Amino acid sequence: MARPRAQRNEFDAGYYRRFYGDTKTRVTSPASVQKLGAFVCAYLGFLDLRVREVIDLGCGVGHWQGVIAQHFPAARYTGVEVSEHMCATHGWTRGSVVDYRHPRRADLVLCQGVLQYLTDREARAAIANLGTLTRGALYLEALTRLDWEENCDQATTDGNVHLRTGAWYRRQLRPNFVGCGGGVFVHRDANVTLFELEASE
User: Fold this and answer.
1) CATH number for the domain including 65?
2) Structural domain count, the chain
3) CA-CA distance, 77 to 73, in Å (whole number)?
4) In angstroms, rounded to a whole number, what is the distance separating the alpha carbons of residues 194 and 162?
5) CA distance 73 to 65
6) Cβ partners under 8 Å of residue 110, min gap 6
7) Are 139 and 110 in contact (CB under 8 A)?
8) What does each of the 201 residues of the chain score in pLDDT, given as a tens digit?
9) Which helix H or strand E contains 112, and what residues bound it?
């Protein structure tokens, strides 16, 4: 299937209805995020990372809010969203992963399905900002060129994005983060011991 050239998306009611509301066309579901969240939160527990502060950048419909409330009930959750529609609907903090500032570094930063909507310059700035915002771990998901061609369902995945290689993302992440599998990246400042085969440099 041919992919349209990436243009600036309108993250309006129609976008969220198609990719998150309609069961026939949505890219994910609350149950899927619950399953993913259980894994991520359990992994952080295994790493002995205490989670008290969570920032969800590009929180959208807010699937992760329930996950955090379930697994880390004492944690402070901040949902950040660029969409005026979602902020008006859910009361999120308006902001962008590119330049959002927070009064405290977070134990867990979530950034799911966001970076592919940014130009290379914006994505580099966003990843640097993720390093500034994170003191513990980052969960990151971004659609890559290989994912588009081989892994995702193109009928339900937004192809109006900037497709880059996984190697490109890893290069940008390397100064601040160490990958430890499953989309989890530990900040180099965090007091976490990873055995050699747990880390994916």
Assistant:
1) 3.40.50.150
2) 1
3) 10
4) 32
5) 10
6) 54, 55, 56, 57, 59, 64, 138, 139
7) yes
8) 344 444 456 677 667 666 776 676 665 778 888 999 999 999 999 999 999 999 999 999 899 999 999 999 999 999 999 999 989 999 999 999 999 999 999 999 999 999 999 999 999 999 999 999 999 999 999 999 999 999 998 988 888 999 999 999 999 999 999 999 999 999 999 989 999 999 876
9) strand 106-112
What SS3 state is found at 200? Answer: coil
13 Cβ contact partners less than 8 Å away, ≥ 6 residues apart: 85
The predicted pLDDT at position 40 comes to: 98
Does residue 165 fall inside a structural domain?
yes
Give the sheet arrangement for strand 134-141, strand by strand: 93-94, 76-81, 53-57, 106-112, 134-141, 184-187, 177-179
Tell me the pairing of strands 93-94 and 76-81: parallel
Residue type, 191: N
In terms of pTM, does the model score above 0.70? yes
105 belongs to a structural domain: yes
Please give the DSSP secondary-structure letter assigned to residue 183: T
Scanning the structure block, which residue is given the tokens 């209805």? 17
Quote the CA–CA distance of 131 and 42 in Å, as a whole number.
Answer: 22
